[in-house]
Amino acid sequence: MSDMLSSPTPVWSVSELNRAVKGLLERELPLMWVSGEISNLTIAASGHCYFSLKDSGAQVRCVMFRNRAMLLPFKPREGLKVEARAAVTLYEARGDYQLNIEAMRPAGLGALYEAYEKLKLKLAAEGLFEPARKRPLPAAPRAIGIVTSLQAAALRDVLTTLRRRAPQLPVVLYPSPVQGEGAADKLAAMIRMANARDEVDVLIVCRGGGSIEDLWSFNEEVVARAIAESALPVVSGVGHETDFTIADFVADLRAPTPTAAAELVSPDRSLQLAQLQAMQTGLLRSYQRILENRMQRLDYLARRLIHPGERVVRQRQRLAQSSRSLGLSMARLMETARWRLAHGQQRYRGIRPAPAQLGQVLAGLKLRLARAQLREQERRQSRLGNLAGRLEALNPQAVLARGYSLVETSTGSLVRDAQQLRHGERLRLRFAQGEAAAVVTEAPVEQGSLF
């Protein structure tokens, strides 16, 4: 017993246990179909659906995420018996075993849904659902065709809507049963007949809501082929907004209801009348502006329009006036020329030279020039004498003549201070007349102690 307690047995956390159980369930149990009744249904604000599937003996929690729930062709509700395609998993946070629903259908309709999905994949692979092959609806159709049953409530809704929106448009009805045996062939035949007659511009294929069995004629391949081959644009208005049929995917445009289909193919008469009224008002205003402009131009041209005789008279008057103006201009030009000539002669007489007067002026200028030269010569001689006296005063030879002499060292430098002499140094003495050599035999004597 003690050996068992002391053995190293691993201890798992709850998270590890739940994670291991989840992996085991997802590996061991494949994707499967489970049937049951919906209960405890909750549709969250995020779009996820939480509910339970139950039968008489048990129940299991289920979750269907928003991206899957959006693809359901019906609305889940309490008590509805369904068949769910689910993966078995475990919600680790609570340790709850649950089903992760990927697809769901009402119970008992598995074969129909399988046929629906199979045909949908086939036609999609052929490109019948491609947006590129969809044709636009005519903006102003000449006539509208309707393929539906004469007893269908949808027919009354469509006709009422067309009468309200576009009462001027003719409507051609191609009657056909919309459910039951052979309804699909009749629907396809009416679509082809509408194309053969070529009496409408757009075609509505419609019926009211119902179960999947009621709408099955619009899931038949023959109807889908007829819509795809139609040269006329086709609008599908089958069932309610949540109902999707093969005809909806093949048609050029899907309407959520038959009434919406009628609104899509018909222009709004009141809107068109308002647009027409606006265009008429704009056209009238444009016409009035053009008319006013033309009237103003006509008045302008009428004022400019002159009788040829009157025009000749005016031209003669203008010519005479021009002649007078030309004569006056010539007279003014001649008078101006005479005045300028007289003025020029007067100025010439004022500046014409007089030889006798000019001779006197020239003699005076010569006399002034001779006097100025004499004064300048005297001034320069006086300045020269002054400069010579100053130069003589500064001549060193004159200083020597007064008894002074110059003392130079052997290198030719003048001796200005006795302290710079050394015993035995050779000197050169320069006098006013001649030179002599000397040698320093005594030490220099301080200034003031010589005598």
UniProtKB/TrEMBL annotation:
Transmembrane segments: none annotated. Residues 12-105 form the OB-fold nucleic acid binding domain. Keywords: Cytoplasm, Exonuclease, Hydrolase, Nuclease. Its EC number is 3.1.11.6. The keyword DNA-binding does not apply. Residues 128-438 form the Exonuclease VII large subunit C-terminal domain. This is Exodeoxyribonuclease 7 large subunit. It catalyses: Exonucleolytic cleavage in either 5'- to 3'- or 3'- to 5'-direction to yield nucleoside 5'-phosphates. Belongs to the XseA family. It is found in: Cytoplasm. Heterooligomer composed of large and small subunits. InterPro entries: Exonuc_VII_L, Exonuc_VII_lsu_C, OB-fold_nuc-bd_dom. GO terms for molecular function: exodeoxyribonuclease VII activity. Bidirectionally degrades single-stranded DNA into large acid-insoluble oligonucleotides, which are then degraded further into small acid-soluble oligonucleotides. PANTHER family: EXODEOXYRIBONUCLEASE 7 LARGE SUBUNIT. It is an enzyme of class 3 (hydrolase). It comes from Chitinimonas viridis.
